[in-house]
Amino acid sequence: MTGPSNVQRLFWTLTVAALFLSACAPAVTPPPTSTLSPVPVPPTLTPPPTDTAIPAAETSTATPVPVDATAFPNADDFQWVPTASGFLRPVDIQNAGDGSERLFVVEQSGRILIVKGGRVLPTPFLNIIDEVGSSGNEQGLLGLAFHPRYAENGLFFVNYTDRSGNTVIARFKVSGDPDVADPASETRLLYVQQPFENHNGGGLAFGPDGYLYAGLGDGGSGGDPLGNGQNTSVLLGKILRIDVNSGDPYAIPADNPFGSEVWAYGLRNPWRFSFDRSTGDLWIGDVGQDTWEEIDFLPAGFPSGANFGWNYMEGNHSFKGMAPPGLVPPVAEYDHTEGRCSVTGGFVYRGADLPEWRGIYFFGDYCTGMVWGVIRSGSGWQTQALFQTGLRISSFGLDQAGELYVADLQGTILLLMRK
Ligand SMILES: [Ca+2]
User: What is the pLDDT of residue 357?
Assistant: First the structure.
């Protein structure tokens, strides 16, 4: 768990002003199979915010606005410390935002376990193993998000593949015991047929607009043989956005671009996305095909209908066909040399304990355990290798205070700390 040597430091493609220039191109033509009314990426885009953190809207105290880091701290001064272990294939870490200081760890087989006061509670918060199909390596209970008003309404949402391998997004409610959910409270919101067992995405997160966002992969196999990523009339290969506070069981926000759940498209297998809790910016780790892993970014306020390029593009590189103008390119990418294989998207650090890291986005590689950081650099981005953890990085997570954790698929949750 030390910082990388010079040899391990990677050559990085820095995405500079060209990032947003391409979006000034003419409107994107929808695929001919679409039967919906597309609203392509508009020609005028919101410029990215400045390096200064934006205070939360509800902030009314006199606390000075924390300034984002402008350079990477020395990673050798920090370490990942195990805080809980014994999990069976943990794939997500969440907090309930209810002041309870509990961590909720999602096991791929279909359980959610609580870490409370430094120990794992023996009774699962939720156990839906009987409903979850996890025979495939990428199948299972894959994502969890607590309602922004969970403390009042006790509602939370999960994303899993069922016994037939199809995606379910469902709502549950806590029971009278705050450490146990009511298993009979399940309400299924969305059901999406999966043509192949891999590329199920699975992440869930509430955006700054209060809508629930879900990441779905392109349906699987290899190379997106069904063309789902660019087909805006299907839900695969997308970031979906639904209003879980209206409708039955949900409503489609009026400004979704295609009149459906689809909010953004052109993704292969978004494995972990998050919103910067300070700025509302969206960060996505999108798993590549054979060569390029990528990190995608949309500043808060970016219009609906962003096209992240798959399968025209793999990272910044042509994959299939002639790419149309207007694609949103990644802000970071890495290749598969030295054993690297699959990106795991993380979070922007907004905690209090390690102010040197404030505003830096963390992500990792599943196979090698390498952890990188991304920081805004002038009009572009800088990416740096930070930690060679040796872990099988399946997810990152935050506690309510914003401290950063990582999940090792082999069973341990670790916290980033100062040495
Ligand atoms: Ca892409």
Answer: 98
* Collapsed DSSP state (helix, strand, coil) of residue 150: helix
- Distance of CA 322 from the midpoint of ligand 1 (Å): 14
Residue 416 phi/psi, 5° resolution? -75, 120
Distance 118 CA to ligand 1 centre (A): 39
Q: For ligand 1, an ion, list residues with CB under 5 A.
A: 308-309
Q: Separation of 66 CA from ligand 1 center, angstroms? A: 32
For ligand 1, the distance from its centroid to the CA atom of residue 325, given in whole angstroms, is 13
Q: Distance, CA 216 to ligand 1 centroid (Å)? A: 14
For residues 190 and 167, what is the distance between their CA atoms, to the nearest angstrom?
8
Q: What is the pLDDT of residue 248?
A: 95
Determine the distance separating the centroid of ligand 1 and the alpha carbon of 313, expressed in angstroms.
Answer: 6
Cβ neighbours around 44 below 10 Å, total: 9
Buried b (16+ CB within 10 A) or exposed e, 402-413: bbbbbbbbebbb
Q: What is the pLDDT of residue 37?
A: 36
Residue 360 has pLDDT above 60, yes or no: yes
Quote the ligand 1 centre to 283 CA distance (angstroms): 12
**CA–CA gap between residue 215 and residue 204 (Å, rounded):** 7
C-alpha of residue 160 to centroid of ligand 1, in Å: 24
Look up the pTM and report it: 0.85
CATH code of domain 18-34+72-418: 2.120.10.30
Fill in the DSSP letter of residue 99: S
pLDDT at 193 over 80: yes
Tokens describing residue 81 = 């410390």
Confidence of residue 418 (pLDDT cuts 50, 70, 90): very high
Residues forming beta bridges with residue 145, ordered by sequence position: 157
Nearest to 302 by CA among 213, 218, 236: 213
Report whether 211 contacts 275 (CB < 8 A): no
Whole-number Å distance between alpha carbons of 67 and 361: 15
Over residues 218-247, the mean pLDDT reads 96
